[in-house]
Specification:
Low-confidence stretches of chain A: none
Structural class of chain B: mainly beta
Strand content of chain B: over 45%
Structural class of chain A: mainly beta
Mean pLDDT of chain A: 93
Number of helices of chain B: 0
Mean pLDDT of chain B: 92
Oligomer: heterodimer
Largest sheet of chain B: 6 strands, mixed
Low-confidence stretches of chain B: none
Order of helices and strands of chain A: EEEEEEEEEEE
Number of helices of chain A: 0
Distance between the termini of chain B: 37 Å
Shape of chain B: globular
Radius of gyration of chain B: 13 Å
Radius of gyration of chain A: 13 Å
Helix content of chain B: under 10%
Number of strands of chain B: 10
């Protein structure tokens, strides 16, 4: 089993839709969790950290379920500019393990 | 302020040649990571530097790969006797903190093509 797994997609959704991505991780010692965004042929950039209590940043909501070892990202009212690959990242100690990413295409 | 920079942005080389890829992290960042990303794939961890500690080389795929970080700042990733399967984007990231809570700031990457 891979350390961090994601549905590769693509998720094709119309503008204004709500879309959710899940990510599962295998290492129960994982300490920190992040969602990064990567545009085509660009470097990854931090979208948001994921806290145990769940957190929201505008249209984006991240949740963590330690018992089931999964993380989710919800995007509401999706925009064309949200089209990208979303990378789930799990950290334990000095190790950052990136998931393969989920590709999102928001269609006009 | 200045972000992470990498050079060259593109490198085309012939199989069997050696290449050097450079990373300039954000000033003051103590942690530095190298990753490899093949076309359409996720990021693959290669090596990690933290301050003056011994680097974590556990991700290096073979002994043809090596990396140095001089003076706790600039890092160079060297690939000897390149093979076609080495073709990928090599990404460098730095972080002000090691481990938990440390956001990684990525450079634009070096796109390596081995003919």
């Amino acid at each position: 089993r891979k350390e961090v797994e994601q549905d590769p997609g693509p998720f094709n959704v119309p503008e204004g839709a709500t879309v959710a991505f899940n990510c599962t991780y295998s290492n129960s010692a994982s300490q920190s969790f992040f969602w990064y965004r990567q545009d085509c042929r660009k470097e990854p950039k931090l979208l948001m950290s994921v806290y145990s209590s769940g957190n929201e940043d505008g249209r984006f909501t991240a949740q963590l379920n330690r018992a089931s070892q999964y993380i989710s990202l919800l995007i509401r009212d999706s925009k064309l500019s949200d089209s990208a690959t979303y990378l789930c990242v799990v950290n334990y100690g000095q190790n950052f393990v990136f998931g393969p990413g989920t590709r999102l295409s928001v269609l006009p | 302020g200045a972000g992470v920079s990498q050079s060259p942005s593109n490198k085309v080389t012939e199989k069997g040649k050696d290449v050097e890829l450079r990373c300039d992290p954000i000033s003051g960042h103590t942690a530095l990571y190298w990753y490899r990303q093949r076309l359409g794939q996720g990021l693959e961890f290669l090596i990690y530097f933290q301050g003056n500690s011994a680097p974590d080389k556990s991700g290096l795929p073979s002994d043809r790969f090596s990396a140095e970080r001089t003076g706790g700042s600039v890092s160079t990733l060297t690939i000897q006797r390149t093979q076609q399967e080495d073709s990928a984007v090599y990404l460098c990231a730095s972080s002000p903190l090691a481990g938990a809570g440390g956001e990684q700031f990525f450079g634009p990457g070096t796109r390596l093509t081995v003919l």
